Amino acid sequence: QLNIPVFGVSTLESLAWYHGKKKNNSFLAVEMKANSEEVFGGIYKFLYQEKRLEVIEFDRTYEKGEWEISLKNYRDKYNNKFKHIIASEKLAFTTESMLEIALNKINSCEDLTIYHWQKIIPFYN
């Protein structure tokens, strides 16, 4: 109704942003518990000069064994430039990160018409 963009920012993306801007690690694997056999995971690269996140592996549900293999591969490849982040149960501290990501998208001169509320699909699994 107000014709303003709505940005969907995942919890994993906001965690990657929060840790990426504070740590000297460019590759960030972020995980949240899904159930006893699965995790929600995503892998990002924090670009310091541009102050933005690049998605390496989109957020999705992984079987624990599959996620562990992916973590090992990235850890072996990027060593000290790789950080594994496990989400805590309290995530309010990422609120500022979500706002920074949205502001970054606005300032990047992207086509804001692609951010329509009907295209943002929450994932509850």
- Helix/strand-derived category reads alpha+beta
Shape: globular
Order of helices and strands: HEEEHEH
Percent of residues in helical segments? 25-40%
The low-pLDDT segments are none
Count of helix runs = 3
Question: How would you sum up this structure, described in words?
Answer:
This protein is an alpha+beta fold. The protein contains three helices and four strands. It has helices at 11-20, 64-78, 95-107; strands at residues 27-33, 38-47, 52-63, 82-86. A four-stranded mixed sheet has the order 3-2-1-4, sandwiched between helices. Strand 1 and strand 2 form a beta hairpin. Helix 1 crosses helix 3. It is globular, with a radius of gyration of 15 Å. The model has no long low-confidence stretch (mean pLDDT 83).
Pick out its properties.
125 residues; alpha+beta; four-stranded mixed beta sheet; 3 helices; 4 strands
Brief overview, please?
By secondary structure, the chain is α+β, with helices and mostly antiparallel strands. The protein has three helices and four strands; from the N terminus they run αβββαβα. Helix 1 crosses helix 3.
Task: Describe the secondary-structure layout.
Elements: H1 11-20, E1 27-33, E2 38-47, E3 52-63, H2 64-78, E4 82-86, H3 95-107
Parallel strand pairs: 1-4
Antiparallel strand pairs: 1-2, 2-3
